[in-house]
Structures are given as C-alpha cells and as structure tokens.
Amino acid sequence: NSGIEAGTYRLCHVLQDAEGKEVARCETDGGQVLPKERKLSIGKMELDDPALWSVDTPYLYTLQTEVYQNGRQVDAFVTATGIREVRFDADKGFLLNGEPLKLKGVNMHQDHPGVGTGLPDALQVYRLRQLKALGCNAYRSSHNPMTPEMLDACDRMGILVIEENRLTGVNEEHIRLLRRMMERDRNHPCIILWSVGNEEWGIEWEESGTRIAASMREYCHRFDPTRPMTVASSSGPSVLIPADVAGYNYILQHSVEQHRKDYPQRRALGSEETTGCGTRGIYFDAHDRGHMVAHNRRPNGPDSLLNCIGRGWKFYDERPYLAGLFYWTGFDYRGEPNPMKFPATGSQFGLLDYCGFPKDEAYYLKSWWTDEPVLHILPHWNLHGHEGDSIDVWVYSNCDEVELAVNDKNLGRKPMEKNGYLAWKTVYRPGAVKAVGYKNGRKMLAEKVETTGVATCVSVAADRTVIRADKRDVAVIRAELQDRKKRFVPTACDELTITVAGPVRILGVGNGDPAYQAAERPMDASARTFQVKAFNGLAQILLQSTGEAGEAVLTVGAEHIPAASFVLKVQE
Q: 339: buried, middle or exposed (CB in 10 Å: 19+, 13-18, 0-12)?
C-alpha cells in the first residue's frame, strides 16, 4: 500500500494460452493493508492437459494479474511463464517433464564487441542462436545474475538456465542480493537451478564453507521451494558442501567416480569443463601478438590430452547419473586472458570467439550434440612459411567413416569412434585437403579446404534483413574476405572501411581478435563512417535503427578491395 490510508484489495489472475485464449482463472481477497505495508496473497488455479514447456517446444502462457480496490481496477501486471517439471535424480541425471535429458551447456559472461556489457536485446538473441546451432541446450550465468531480457530470450528459445548469485555468504547484504535475484526471476520456466557460488577457495576447505552453503540452501528453499540449488566447487572437499545438486568444476580436479561409490544418492553435474580452445584460425603460437594455439591440438601440462574437449563430453555422456556439463566458455570474453598476457586482453577458451564466429572445437560439439551431418577439416591450408613441415590434419565429424586426401594423395579411410575425432599426419604443401564422410557405407558428405589467393573482395551478410524502427533493434553483419575465386581467405587481416546511409547508426564493430586494441564504436553516435580491421578473414558490424522507417545501405571495402553493399529494411 503506497498510500497514507489503510485499504483493502482483491486480486484476479487470468491465465491465457499462446493464442490469448483464457484457460484458467482465480481470485483472492487480500484483506486490509496498512499504509506502506506489503502483503502476500496466494491463489491457486488448475489447468487440465497443459501444453508443457521444453527445449524443443518452449510453450509460454501469459498470466494477467489485476488489482481491484473498492470494485475498481487500480493496477495490472503481465507475467510470461511456462509449465514444466524439473527434477534431478541420483541415477537418471536431469529429467525434464519426466524424460531424461543430458544438459549440453556452456558458461557465459555477458559482454560483446562494440557494446561491452550494454547488450541490446537483439544481440542477446543472436548469441543464443549461435549456441543453439551447436546443439547447446543449457546456459550457466557466470558468475552473476543474468539480465531479465536474456532470461526472456531463454524462455522463448528453450534454453535451460543455471542462474548464479554473485556473492557467497550469509550476512544481511548477501541474503538480500540472493533474494532479489530469486524473487525477480523465479517465474522464468528456463531456470532449473539456483547457484549460490563458484570456486570459493577461501571456504571450500573450511568448516565455515559447509555452514555457509547449508544456510544458503535453506534460504533458497524458502525463497523458491520449486527448484534445487547448487554450488560450483573447484576442488575442495566438495562432498561436504551441502548442495542439492553438486557442481563439479573440471573432472581433473574431482574424484567424481569415488564420490559416486561413497555417496550414491548424490546428484551432480559438471558446472565447468575445459574446451581447450585458443585463438580462432591460429595453428602456430604468436604470443607476442596475443594469439595461441588451442590446447586441444597439443599436450599442455596437466591437461596433456589431445582433443581434451572430448574428455569432458565423453565422461558425462557415458554416465547416466550425471546431469550433463557446462563448458568454459561459450563465447570468448574480455578480461582473464590466462594463460596469455598483454597484448591479449581477453579469455580465449570460448567455443566461439568474442564476435560469435566458431572455432574448430565448436564443430566437435556440433558433431555429437546435433543430428545435423558434420564434416570439418582443420587446420586451414593457408600455412605460408611452413612448407615441408609435418602437419596433423584433424577431422571433426559424426559420419561413420571418413576418408582423407591431401593434394590428391589418399591417406586412407578411418572409422569414427563415438564422441571422437580423426587425425592423419602429412606434410604441408600448398594445394587442397579433401575429406569424404560415409554413413552406413555410403558417401554422405564431402568437404575441401584449399590454399587460397589474397583477399580481393568482401562478402557481406546479416543475421536478418529486416529490423524494427524503434531505436533499439540491431542487425548483426558478417563481413568475410574472399579471393578472386570467392573462397574464404582465413589469414586475411585487411583494414575495412564501413559506410552507412539511411535510418541506422554504427553501434559497434569487432573481429574476434583477443588482442584487438582499436576503438570498437564511433565516439559520435551520428557517424556515418568507421573502420575495423578484419581478423583471420572476418569482421562484425552492429547496425542499430535510429527510429525512422526506410532502407539502410551498408558498404564495406578496403584499399585494394572493391566495396560490397548490403540493404537492410527498417520497418515500423
């Protein structure tokens, strides 16, 4: 009651289906509320044969809540929500609506080239689409609550979410922040777990950590009795941390199978696992430029396993009692350049680079996380300066068998192990590498990478051809450098000039280079021209509507590359 007199109220809740049809309602009398007092009212409604929310069919209902005082409606609020059952089981892992479902997840920070942490809603959706294309069905916010607009997008797109609190502790401020997150976001059907902390090294080995986690668990149950909670443990005696669902950060640091034997009723998932990724398109270290080869491609200290990304997925896929895993990370992000140093300024362990362009390891997961036929060859074949060197050619694929030829020399046909990859040794000479994939003994796919010429043209494409004239919507543009035969040039790093005309502005640019130092957005929001340097053949441009309808024209070119144009429609 925000007024200065006591009053009574009545609530009416109307549930509508996706077509706007009323399917259930309930009313509650709230009684008297004193000035400045808050009061909780609870109502119940029943719905026969509801449409269930799932990752494949994320069906959403709308709840219209109306507040009446003295017979007059004085307020209303609309809540989008979904109906589903979430359960973690000690033997079956994660179940959604009663069916086992393996979590194929990524950890994510919330930033992007050109905009930093101020992401427009359309860019949130773009990032989720890039992840879904790999077969990803789950997202862990690391290590802070997500913006509500991102959760809205996960609701609509069928992405399961672990939402994480920023601070682990039980003083008044800690619990206020935990409660604020949970009460703000608990109506989102996408959320399946609340996380109360991550790698709290200072308390994981202490009895105080057990007490803190146990207390936070009880607060979580009080604020939201419908979902379990978790804690992401780095390597302390985490079996003693009383989480509803244990979070293992890296199987190399945890005795997961021993815990299974000792505590068979424990429910668990992999809250973090390594991707082994490095810099997109880099196959020879260049630390002075902030670029590194993927750990997947070579032994690396305690992580000395080729294709170490596969170790995590195999482990969790082969054990039904584990709910699934979350790779560190989905996208690259600013900060934490470990193990690199300046000029690198960002983490390089994303399956996708900072812009969302896929690295090789993304195709490994796409092979085993989707039913889409995949055949990906690495490295590219523009390895200038390494003529005569021994090269390991890898193939990521979900074909039964793959045959490889290098410069027309057949290197043989090999069977593909489940959740595996294939490798052949050869010597680098400019030319072509060709792979042929077989399914049930029949040729299914063919893929070829060639040594290209220098970049002579640019291809421009967008995630959408139409955006809204609302001063908010954003189109994500991909600029790709190609040679005279229209082949992608994976080593081209030309300086591109961007020009726009019409009802859009250049919101920002990027290229996925973890050591990129140039400005990523114009200082003047009305600027019509800007520059970005392509990195390993690619650059990204974000165009935002200025509020007027019409056609916008983007042109992209370079000193020795003719400009290419793209037309974007901006509609009311």
A: exposed
